[in-house]
Design goal:
Helices cover 31% and strands 23% of the residues. The chain is of the alpha+beta class. It folds into two domains: 255 residues, Aminopeptidase; 104 residues, Alpha-Beta Plaits. A hairpin with an 8-residue loop joins strand 1 and strand 2. Helix 1 crosses helix 3, helix 3 crosses helix 9 and helix 7 crosses helix 9. The longest helix has 20 residues. The radius of gyration is 23 Å and the shape is elongated. The two termini are 28 Å apart. Bound molecules: zinc ion (ZN). The site of zinc ion has 6 residues, from helix 3.
């Protein structure tokens, strides 16, 4: 891509969006991977494709050499899946926006990142550091089949750049709250609720105590939210319930809250000595905060944003999780939210603003071209 134009970039975005790829549709996700593989081969990347497991699509990695080829480089992270089932709504352009499944989260960002690499390639330039493009198939369900691979790759790189959508007006993401999930199960003793009530030990009643204990940790000013969103218990109204299960889902802004919740879950007071409680950690995303290294990355990107015509970048700490949580929590300098400007994530009104495509892609090209020893804190 020699010239960066809105129409050219929109065509690139559209090609991604028109291959529908809900997370649970490995075939669709793999067609996105085929498309990406073709683009990366076109710029001479060395491809590593890991077959999907547990019903998810493949993990695709493409390695592009840099100017400075000694030592670790940049990890460019994206996900190929979307939350939208096939055929729900289609790509369309209207005025200064374009709509489509996953266009904002995050196919627009993926398309821009690859277009920036293609632009460097077509104009005889290179990223300063070696670049690894890594796109995964299952981010929208917590990256269960990819987390280990992401973390292993991150530790081999100097920094991670994530092309999830930007914050309002183009803000970069310099930290993310974490998400913690706990599965809780109680097991009591069944009994006829009329004839032998005294012999029963209610698993639901014990769970009720647990729910109140956990939800009382919620602290709105700290952005610490504990929610028991799902509970199942009992089998009959005329029976003391012997089993109950619940899922505790929490937003944990920092490691402090994550540890607080973990401690509480493991120390749930036992109200009925005959009811057993079992807790298991579910999928989660650890929080990460802005470190001096992230500040340095941000400062450099913000300069480039001004240089390439984005009035200002700005920064934010985002509530929702991304794969940047994994890399950031490992201490790998992570700059997230480098993707498109738009809105309506996870809705049928998901859109991007066309005016962001050229300056944002140019900024990414400049970022890849300049980040290296002595620049951006690296
Ligand atoms: Zn996303």
């Amino acid at each position: 891509m020699r010239e960066l134009t809105t129409d050219g970039l929109l065509d690139a975005v559209r090609a991604w969006v028109e291959i529908e790829s809900p997370t649970n549709d490995a075939e669709g996700v793999n067609r996105v991977a085929d498309h990406l593989e073709g683009l990366l081969r076109g710029i001479g990347a060395v491809i590593e494709r890991t077959p999907g497991r547990d019903g998810y699509g493949d993990i695709l990695v493409g390695r592009v050499p840099g100017e400075v080829n000694d030592g670790p480089g940049l990890l460019l992270l994206g996900h190929m899946d979307t939350v939208h089932q096939r055929g729900v709504f289609a790509y369309r352009r209207a005025g200064d926006r374009a709509y489509g499944p996953g266009i904002y989260d995050m196919k627009g960002g993926n398309a821009m990142a690859v277009a920036a690499l293609q632009h460097l390639h077509a104009t005889g330039r290179r990223p300063r550091l070696p670049v690894t493009v890594m796109m995964i198939p299952d981010e929208e369900v917590g990256s269960p089949s990819s987390r280990a691979a992401i973390e292993a790759e991150a530790l081999r790189h100097r920094a991670a750049l994530v092309f999830e959508p930007s914050g309002e007006g183009g803000k970069f993401t310099v930290g993310r709250h974490g998400i913690a999930r706990w599965h809780i199960r109680t097991e009591g003793r069944p009994a006829h609720a009329g004839a032998y009530h005294a012999e029963g030990r209610s698993a639901v009643r014990e769970m009720a105590h647990h729910i109140l204990a956990l939800e009382s940790l919620t602290d709105h000013p700290r952005n610490f939210y504990v929610n028991i969103g799902i509970i199942h218990g009992g089998t009959h109204e005329n029976m003391v319930p012997a089993e109950c299960s619940a899922i505790c889902y929490a937003l944990v802004p920092t490691a402090t809250e994550e540890a607080e919740l973990r401690a509480a879950v493991h120390a749930l007071p036992q109200h009925d000595a005959d009811v057993r409680t079992e807790v298991t950690a579910g999928l989660g995303r650890p929080p990460f905060g802005k470190s001096p290294a992230i500040q340095a990355l941000y400062d450099h990107a913000a300069l480039l944003a001004v240089e390439t015509g984005l009035a200002s970048a700005g920064e934010r700490v985002a509530g929702g999780g991304s794969d940047g949580n994994f890399t950031g929590a490992l201490g790998v300098p992570t700059l997230d939210g480098l993707g498109v400007i738009g809105g309506g994530p996870h809705t049928r009104e998901e859109y991007i603003e066309l005016r962001c495509l050229v300056p944002r892609t140019r900024m990414l090209a400049r970022l890849f071209e300049t980040l290296g020893p002595g620049v951006g804190g690296l």
